[in-house]
Amino acid sequence: MKRKKVAKSKVKNNTKKMVAENIYKYTAVFEPAIEGGFNVSFPALPGCFTCGNNLPHAKKMAKEVLGLWIEELLSQKENLPLTDAKPIVQKISTKVKKS
Predict the structure, then answer these.
(1) 4, 28, 59, 63: least surrounded by Cβ within 10 Å?
(2) Please, what is the end-to-end C-alpha distance for the chain in angstroms?
(3) Nearest CA to 16 among 24, 26, 8?
(4) Are 9 and 31 in contact (CB under 8 A)?
(5) Domains of the chain: total
(6) What is the separation of C-alpha 87 from the centre of its chain, rounded to a whole number of angstroms?
(7) What are residue 56's phi and psi, to 5 degrees?
(8) Listed residue (54, 27, 25) closest to 38, CA to CA
């Protein structure tokens, strides 16, 4: 997980206020769905899933669910995973005897 602090201006009641925000980056896995579109998961965040009708939509949904997931973990005072291991994706073949 990569985290970067940024300052963002927020306008409320015609008054500009600087709000500190953190940017969190996690690896997302996009898998084609049988019914079309993509299923998205985050290996470092078990249970954090979403999907999209196409790749751009899946990326948008991934960004949204990642933000909501992290906000929930932080609000519950849960620890965020500090490591974001890169998944290794390989095709594996095996022989199976006919019955």
Answers:
(1) 4
(2) 47
(3) 8
(4) no
(5) 1
(6) 14
(7) -60, -40
(8) 54
Q: How far is CA 76 from the centre of its chain?
A: 18
Q: Considering the domain boundaries, does residue 89 fall inside one?
A: no
* Long-range pairs of 29-37 with CB within 8 A, sequence gap ≥ 24: 29/87, 29/89, 30/55, 30/58, 30/59, 30/62
What pLDDT, in 10s, does the model give residues 8-57?
Answer: 555 556 666 777 788 999 999 999 999 999 999 999 999 999 999 999 99
Starting from the edge strand earliest in sequence, which strands make up the sheet with 49-52, in order? 29-32, 38-41, 49-52
Which structure tokens are listed for 87?
């998944």
List the CATH number of the domain containing 12. 3.30.160
Distance CA 23, CA 67 (A): 9
